[in-house]
Amino acid sequence: MTTLDHKTTTRPVPNPKKSLITKLNMGTGIILGVAFAFGTYYWLKSGQDMSRPNNVNKVLIVTMFMWSLGFMIGIGAFIGPFRWLIGKDLTPEEELYLAGDGQGIKRYFKYCTDHKVVGIQYLVGVMTLLGVGGTMAMMIRTNLAMPGSKLVTPTVYNSLVGLHGITMIIAMIIVATGPFGNYIMPIMIGARDMAFPRLNALSWWVLFTAIPVLCSAWFLGGIPTGWVAYAPLSVQAGPGMNAFLCTIIIFAVSTAVAGMNITATVVAMRAKGMSWNRVPIFVVGATISVALAIPAFPTFMLSMVQTGLDRTIGTGFYDANMGGSGWLYAHLFWIMGHPEVYVILIPGVAVLMEILPVFVRKPLFSYGAAIAGFAGIAGLSAFVWAHHMYMSGWLPMFNGPFMVTTEMISIPTGLIFLVMLGTLWQGRPWMKLPMLSVYAFLWNMLIGGITGIYLSDVPADNYLHGSMYVTAHFHYTLMGSALTGAVAGLAYWFPKMTGRMLNERAGYISFWLVQVGFQVLFLGMFVAGSEGQPRRVADYAHMYAHADLISTIGAYSVGTGFIVLLWAVVHSWRHGKIAPMNPWGAKTLEWTVPYPVPLTNFPDDAMPVVTSDFYGYGKAVK
Predict the structure, then answer these.
(1) Closest residue by Cα to residue 269 from 374, 203, 187
(2) How is the chain split into domains, by residue range?
(3) pLDDT tens for residues 549-585?
């Protein structure tokens, strides 16, 4: 139960004088970034012997970072701190201009501090990354449609696999916390904005600069190592690897800034009366996710820094001849790599658990058990990384303990399942598009979870490791579960984010094309993997031909479904039915504010006061 007194307030109209802030936008950022990059490249190149790979790597890495720095200067990311340093902080009018007040669509192409603008920027960015990564996936599956296919060369195929992997991993990490954690979460907890609005904008635009860097890998020979980029292979790889490592370092900075901001916002800016046992479950899931990411991702960043040093100045972090070790890279990578799975999974599940009580009209079966499940997953995920190293020969005596911790993580995961099933029990679900995704998640996660139990067992993993079975397993976990949750969140919060309803018919068509095609695609991979087909190879034996053809047919169904969803989003955003204020009859705070959402979300003299939890459907109001 919440109270909200809607009284009008007045704010000064932003009318900054001839401030530099009004002249900077995405265009000036690109111009200055390109100028920094080309200037740095030709300046460094003139003083280096470019016949030596180390010098080539050095020039390219510095050039890529200078592109990022130049773009951030050109878009105005550092004006606020610079003005503060010289004792001339931004005026209130300039702060309002920076927040994009009254600027219409132009504010989406500027360094804008309004969390709602940042949320939309993340949404468009995620859709773009998923589109690029999905296109590469379709090229991979088309090449595997039949044995002996020559659609692409083995070298190009290897680059497709690596770039598809890292593109989709980046997209999936931000797929829920990016759009919804920025747009919806502050309103949901009754805050006027994020705790650090300038850092919020910084997190998006830093990520934006990483996208052209990653794309440049195509023009630099690609990446031959897969997205895991194991050393010393990555140290010896061609120039395209520089783009990969720069992307990871830039992305790690973005996620650190975003994670810190989300955590600070939830801890310090909740509405009056919103105690921890009244915080919406999506907010809890997003906060646990970023709390897990903050200590995990720097290890990946460190592994890339060390790879860069080995490639440029000849250090030997991963060179056994110089006292280094490939084990160091493997541990740094997987200490990030397995918690990262749950950084992706938890927000998507939290979205579905937020939706479930609304469409079943029942309280969440056990709010405390849900939080315990999330916390258990996050805690145990820090102790399972070496199950990726069973077959590597590293300390076989540790295989048993890591097998136990990996199997134990099924307990809190099962708790999440029980909470969702308990909420559904004896309910009368309202079968709208967001609710369909709940059922899809339960099916997909059941398959992903059970097959993960097999892979956690050392003898079974000995046979299945490196096969298509593993590929199918983690796609059921990430795409079938986390992405399903994110799409449900899009359908659920689309009215609040755009003011229009998502085209329902197109949404249903997309759902069934994706979900049916998904089962065909990856169940076929389970069959091929069980029979021994290796992954990351451009060709295969004829014995796997039927399974691979079936999988490719499923892939085309999935691809078609997401094209339909893209059409639905674009068409509905422009021409969709005007949404009522609260189309789902939900009780959380984001549905108490009108669209377009005011700049400060809530009037100054009518801040929300929370008097009960948000899941009391069917309970009498006292």
Answers:
(1) 187
(2) 115-610
(3) 999 999 999 999 999 999 999 999 999 999 999 999 9
Give the pLDDT of residue 413. 94
- DSSP character string of 97-153: HHTTTT-GGGGGGS----HHHHHHHHHHHHHHHHHHHHHHHHHHHHHTSSTT--SS-
Pick the CATH number of 115-610 from 3.40.50.1000, 3.40.250.10, 1.20.210.10, 3.90.230.10: 1.20.210.10
Task: Please spell the DSSP secondary structure of 452-492, one letter per residue.
Answer: HHHHHSHHHHHHHTTBHHHHHHHHHHIIIIIIHHHHHHHHH
Looking at the predicted structure, is the pLDDT value of residue 622 above 50? no
CB 606, CB 4: distance < 8 Å: yes
Of 269, 105, 116, give the one whose Cα is nearest residue 597. 116
Strand partners, 610: 2
Please give the Cα distance from 162 to 219 (Å, whole number). Answer: 15
Cα–Cα dist 114/214, whole Å: 27
pLDDT of residue 150: 85
Other CB atoms within 10 Å distance of the CB of residue 133: 19
- Condensed to tens digits (0 to 9), the pLDDT of residues 204-220 reads 999 999 999 999 999 99
Spell out the residues 6+ positions from residue 598 whose beta carbon is closer than 8 angstroms to its own.
none
Query: What are the C-alpha distances in Å from 152 to residues 37, 155, 237, 594?
Result: 31, 8, 20, 51
The one-letter amino acid code at 268 reads A
Q: What letters, b where the CB count within 10 A reaches 16 and e where it falls short, cover 442-465?
A: bbbbebbbebbeebbebeebeebb
Q: What is the pLDDT of residues 225-260, one digit of tens each?
A: 989 999 999 999 999 999 999 999 999 999 999 999
With a CB cutoff of 8 Å and minimum separation 6, the contacts of 404 are: none
Token reading at 227: 């997205």
Query: Residue 500 pairs with which residues in a beta bridge?
Result: 578
Q: Give the model's confidence band at 620: pLDDT under 50 very low, under 70 low, under 90 confident, else very high.
A: very low
Distance separating alpha carbons of residues 599 and 416, to the nearest angstrom: 36
Whole-angstrom distance, CA of residue 222 vs CA of residue 200: 32
77 SS3 class: coil
pLDDT at 2: 52
In three-state secondary structure terms, 225 is coil
pLDDT of residue 115: 97
Residue recorded with tokens 């195509």: 218
pLDDT score for 66:
98
- Return the amino acid letter for 564: V
- 361-372: average pLDDT: 94
HSE (CB half, 13 Å, CA atoms) of 47?
A: 6
Give me the pLDDT at residue 10, please.
46
Look up tokens 């931000």; give the residue: 174
**Residue 559, phi then psi, degrees to nearest 5:** -60, -40
The residue to which tokens 């646990």 are assigned: 288
- At 299-318, the pLDDT tens digits run 999 999 999 999 999 999 99
In angstroms, the CA 35 to CA 29 distance is 10
Whether the CB-CB separation of 363 and 448 falls below 8 Å is answered with no
